[in-house]
Amino acid sequence: MKLAGTDPLVTTFWRLALSTLLLLPLQMWRRGNTLAGNRPVPKCNSVTETGPPEPFCSRRGVVVSRSVTLLQRLRLSPVTMLAGALLAVHFALWVTSLSMTSVLSSLVFVTMSPLFVAVLDLVLFREHTSPLLWVAVGVVTAGGVFIGLWSGTGANLGNLLALGGALAASLYLIVGRRASREMDPLSYNVGAFGWAAVLTGIACVVAGRPLLPLSGTSFLWLAVTAILGQTVGHGLINASLKSFQSQFVALMLLWEPILGSLLAFLVLGDRPGPAELVGGAVILAGLALGIISSRRSGAAGPASAEGQPV
């Protein structure tokens, strides 16, 4: 995302907007689905000259409210709008952090979401949490403190922004896990990504960040980010929420700081310092403990049909 060379908010908007534009035609083609899962739509009553005004009727004789139909096609429900707001906050904080700290530190802090998910599941849904997971929390916290003590003021602010992005991502995963019980992944992605794009677009206008013009190089890298990072990456994450618990899905994001840092070193020449390497290794070790604890407690298994907390 650094290669785009655009403002963080502008980068976030185009990543989300382009991804939505890629998915929207497919979703519109499947517009027969409804949010609750293909509920039957009532037929129109016969129209009389003296009777009350009828709702709009399609040629097939189906009651169709133009506004409701549009919302259904775009999958803008309270759940997807909440998810979109959380996703917008996540990206706004994380992308901003990339300009204030190293790629490694930013990715390590933003992937602390598994621990936030575990704590939130315990607090909000009283889900059983393995004692080993709390050990993982302590290890990850120690790694974060170590990086913070050895970083400059600007880097610390960037680390805090990435940490805030992790909290927003945790809430996004929890909301997405519950939305997966009612919606297919494509519908959820279109609604969440689209609403997040709307919110970040509004934020850009309010903050005076012009969305256009873009150079050809910037647009190219934004398109790559939208296709690979958002449409494919986040799309697969949301699809997996239908079968796996949110804690387990969050823990699988452990690979992001490793691969991201390697790419940043090869492409951008971004060399992390010794403190970031040591602290990052400690944090990754803590996340690995979290994976082990989740496997032992059965967090990798499918959610129960009764709708138990995840």
Automatic annotation (TrEMBL):
Keywords: Membrane, Transmembrane, Transmembrane helix. It comes from the Bacteria. The chain crosses the membrane at residues 12-29, 76-97, 103-125, 132-151, 157-175, 187-212, 218-237, 249-268, 274-292. One of its GO terms (cellular component) is membrane. Residues 157-289 form the EamA domain. It holds the Pfam family EamA. InterPro entries: EamA_dom, EmrE-like. The keyword Transmembrane applies. This is EamA family transporter. It comes from Candidatus Cryosericum odellii.
